[in-house]
Prior knowledge:
This protein is of the alpha/beta class and 327 residues long.
Amino acid sequence: MKIAVYNYREFDEGAYFEKFSKIYNVEIVRIDDAPDLQNANLAKGCFGVSVITTAITKDIIQTWSHLGIKHISTRTIGYDHIDLESAKDLGMTVSNVTYSTASVANYTVMLILMALRKMKMVMRRAVGFDYSLENSIGMELENKTVGVVGTGAIGQKVIQNLSGFGCKIIATDPFIKKEVTKYAQYVSLEKLIKESDIITFHVPALEDTYHIVRQETIDQMKDGVILVNTARGSVINTTDLIKNLENGKIGACALDVIENELGLYYQDYKYQVIGNHELSILRDMPNVLLTPHLAFYTEQAVSDMVENSIASIVASFNGEENKFKIC
């Protein structure tokens, strides 16, 4: 059985695709570029395709369907880059993956600590041999209330990590998890927004999570609140974020994701115009930490992503139960 792997990265995924293709007895068709109408036909003869966070449009899906492709697996947790309706209409299976929760959870705590200690400004100063203390005084996590929005696997791990710092932790989620109650108190989203000094987001891109952070909710937040987003860019209305960073209502933020990032990250643009005006504004703010959607990026997580993508397609091929199936 053949699997076409788009956005194949030899430098990090290559060894894992070689390892797991042998374990699962599949043949990998390597395609270095992102899928488009010009290279979609390279998947001919494959049962499934493995992709990442590039737009998987109706036209691409139709082309794959005509070639006999039965399964689209994204090597990511999020799947909002795939036209699910088109896949459903054509009877194609779509799946995502899970990976080490420690990757994103540990990164989230790092961003929280860096935001509290104004590390972007401190590091910029140090590059120019400016070691003065003025305006660089930080805050301690122990004295803060941290609100965790979303207590799935990653949110739970974030809460567990934060519990060692002695801070107050509150959380919100449609489903209460008993394990979380050992470390955090469940509250409503409205109460969390009002009472948190730091708010960190760990929710998928859904209709009811779209623009949780917007002018209406920002008005309810504490003055100087710190926002951390390692989930999906659509959680935050970027225009309202910038406005309230500029007027001081929001004290700082740390963003590993941003709205309209699809097709932007994982490429070298240092000599190009990136075409994202809001990103350009945010990257120049001294109280904004921006990283290019790599909270997940650890050796263990990449191994998990590759293995679970292959395992998902193999399960479909064998007619077995597939825990990663979306539709």
